[in-house]
Structures are given as structure tokens and as C-alpha cells.
Amino acid sequence: MKTYPMTIDGKSVDTGRTLEIINPALGQPFAAVPVARPQDVDAAVAAARKAFPAWRATSAAERQAMLHALGAALEANMPELMDLITRETGKPLQGLNNVGAGMELGGSIAWTHVTADLPLEPEVIQDNEQARVEVHRKPLGVVASITPWNWPLMIAIWHIIPALRAGNTVVLKPSEYTPVATARFVELAQAVLPPGVLNVVIGGGDIGAALSQHPDINKIVFTGSTRTGKRIMENAAASLKRLTLELGGNDAGIVLPGADVQAIAPKLFGVAFHNNGQTCACLKRLYVHDSQYDAVCTELARLAKEVRVGDGLDPATELGPLQNRAQLDVVSTLAADAAANGGTILSGGKARAGQGYFFEPTIVAGLSNGARLVDEEQFGPILPVIRYSDVEQAIALANDNPNGLGGSVWSSDLALAAEVGKRLECGTVWINEHGAVQPDAPFGGVKQSGIGVEFGHHGLAEFTSIQTVKIMKN
Fold first, then answer.
1. Where are the domains of the chain?
2. Predicted pLDDT of residue 318
3. With CB atoms counted within 10 Å of each terminal CB, which end of the chain scores lower, N or C?
4. DSSP secondary structure string, 166-224?
5. What separation in angstroms does the CA of 33 have from each of 6, 182, 278, 351, 383?
6. Which residues form a coiled coil (predicted)?
7. Catalytic one of 88, 104, 246, 454
């Protein structure tokens, strides 16, 4: 079994303690990583702090060239990294609608190159005979990145690349469930970046807490649960660290009357079930008008029964396992609660016998707001389909949730759909699509789905502070 190292100050670190990483398709370990100690967190932060002045002083062109080289390194090592992602997450190499490890690597490469080329030019507010007023964007210092297990490498890229582009240095803590591909990427990055610019420490919640409390961390960017995000916010308060928090989502979709059921059903299924529903911005609650409710349920159940579930290394597999046993238990509990409290299981509904953390793709009818499966984020391959009688009711039901990450409206009337969509309480709304993020458009949540945004100019700016320079001319 291969051990993948932590990297601090450009060097591989062995702590004397290791953690075995489970392949969720088999329920067995396939790799090992070192477990960080408190002194390793201090060493990583100190290395990043030491590297910051020189990294900040590099020109934008120099930093951009190195970031493009990181994108090239991702591409050159794509087969190895895809294999590691599939083994540690369970997601198929290609997957349903080609949303799998290949998409994760492709997205990582695209985000790296696009973000590298984002400008950070000074903004001129005033330039006349009295004065010139400029707004400059300056790097913050050391950024701590804490990433989840569902898209481990791609979300790390979402955090790391804008931080580096803005002139910050980084200490990364991947999920202890899925650290392997990320640790390998950081190892590869040392051939491109100066020592200390990008470091990785591996461990559980104690290591995340040590980072979020560390006095020499200037900003934390975190993707994960709302509960953990609140703890990070509490830990960051003592030193008023900057925060970007992309937290839980329980995204609603509304199918408006008259939509083409046969046309949209495969899309609805894909945006709800890709990566086995383990995506923050998956469709997680679907509201359908009375007139088409039965037809949508029937078609989604058919698709759920036909989708190919198995080991992600099998090229024929469309959906893999849940990533970990705890998440399988969450989904199983919600399915059982739905069946016991008025829900009708139209497909699936239970864990699959045998090895691995597999759950049958599941469509549930007959529930509404107030049911646990509707109110709570399931983060798995189970979708409640909820009946509504008029659009105002659908909007009210969709907004009746503490989360507000994404939402969608499905209709052949694009103008009407857009108007309905703008009334949803979410950071991003899609029309006839769901969860389609891109590197040049801001993405973030409202309500308890987070603080701040990622991607594009708006996301890049969150890794900087503003300095206003006023030059008097007379």
C-alpha cells in the first residue's frame, strides 16, 4: 500500500503516524497518508508566512506563468490523478452524463487556466486637476483552505488558485476521507512553485480547528457543512480572519406547468444524481405541478431503475457508491423515515447488499415540506418529488428552508421561468439547468449556505484587501 506524503516548505513530511484511506466501492483501504500533529500545522503556517513576502513581490505575469504550469502538470498527470480520485471518492472515471473523475480533472485544469488570467488592475475612481484616487487590491497573507470529500481535488483548486493568483500563500487541509489526489497534486506543484507557497497538512477536525484558530492565518476558505462552517467562524472571530464559506445546500427545482416532461426528465435526473447526489449544488428537492406530477415521477423512477451502479473503475458504471459509511447511514435513515411517514418509494429505497457503500438510486413521491427528506440535505442518491397546485405555492415551498445555495426553474417559457427564478432565495438560479458552475461567474450561497462568493473577478477579490490611494495634485 503506497503512502502519499504531506508537503511542508517544499519537503515531504513523515509524522510517524498514518491513516489508511478507504476505497468506498470495496470498503477496504488502498492507500495511506501521514497524520499531522499540532507542530506540523505550526510548521506549515510558518513556511507559508516565510514565503509570503517573496511571493507577494512577484509580478502578476510571473505568478500567472506558474499557475498555467500547474494546469499543465494536472493535464500531464491526468490518468494517475483520475485513478486516485475514483479510488478515494468512489465516483466513476466518467460517470452519469460524463460527470466523474474525468470531469473533476478537466474542471480543475479549466479553473486553473481561467483563474490564472483574471486581472487585478487598480481601479481609478477620480483623476482630475484636484486629485487622483486609485483602489488597489493587495494580498492578505496566509490563506488556510479546508476542503470536503465530495470533489476533493477540484474544490482544492477552487481555493488554491485564486489565493495564489492574488499573491497569497496557502496551507491546505483536505478531508481525511479523501486526501490522496490532493496530496499528490501538492507534491507535483513543488516542481513549479517556490518552497512554502503551497503546503498540505492532513488530519481530522482537530487539524482544521488548529488552522482556523491559528493567529498567523489571515483568511480561511472552507467548503463543507453549515455546522462545521459555524465552528470555523467562531474560531476565526478572535483574530477577525477573513472568511469565504460555501456551506450546505438543499437546492430546490420547480417544474412549471406545460414543461416538456420527456425532454427535461433526463436532465432532472442527471442534475439530481450525478456524483451520487454528493454535490452541494445538486438538485435535492423537486416541486412539480399537479398536471404533470405523475408523469415526472414515472419517468424519473424509470431512469433510476435503469442507471448503471457499480465500481467507478468499471467504464460502464454511471453511479458509484456513497463516499463513506457515515453518509450511507444518513441516506438510509432518511429513506426509512420517508417510507414510514407517508412517502411512496417509486424506485430503490435501500442500501445494496455486499461490499462497498452503495445505495440504490431512489425516487420518493408523496412528501412535502416538514418531512425530513425534504427539509434536510440528503447528500446522496435519493430525490423527493413534491406536488404543488400553483406557482406561488411552489415559490413559497422552495424558499421555506434555511439553506440558499442554488435553485432552478424548468419551463419552455424562458421569460416566465427567469421571473420565477429571481424570486427564489438562493445565490445562483439556473433556468432549464442546475448546478452548472463556471470559472468566470460568481458562485456562493445566501441564508445559511455561506458567506462570500467564489470564481471570476468577484471570487478573486475575496482573497485581497482594498487600499485606497489618494494623490493630491494641488
1. 2-247+449-472, 251-438
2. 98
3. C
4. TT-EEEEE--TTS-HHHHHHHHHHTTTSPTTSEEE---SHHHHHHHHH-TT--EEEEES
5. 7, 11, 24, 29, 35
6. none
7. 246
- pLDDT digit string (tens) for 355-407? 999 999 999 999 999 999 999 999 999 999 999 999 999 999 999 999 999 99
Q: How confident is the model over 190-201, as a mean pLDDT?
A: 98
Convert the pLDDT of each residue in 396-446 to its tens digit.
999 999 999 999 999 999 999 999 999 999 999 999 999 999 999 999 999
CATH of domain 251-438: 3.40.309.10
**Topology (CATH) of 2-247+449-472:** Aldehyde Dehydrogenase; Chain A, domain 1 (3.40.605)
- Residue 146 dihedral angles phi and psi, to the nearest 5°: -120, 115
- 246 tagged catalytic: yes
When pLDDT is cut at 50, 70 and 90, the band that residue 474 belongs to is: confident
Q: How many CA atoms lie within 13 A of 449 on its CB side?
A: 25
- Cβ count near 354 (within 10 Å): 7
Q: Are 201 and 229 in contact (CB under 8 A)?
A: no
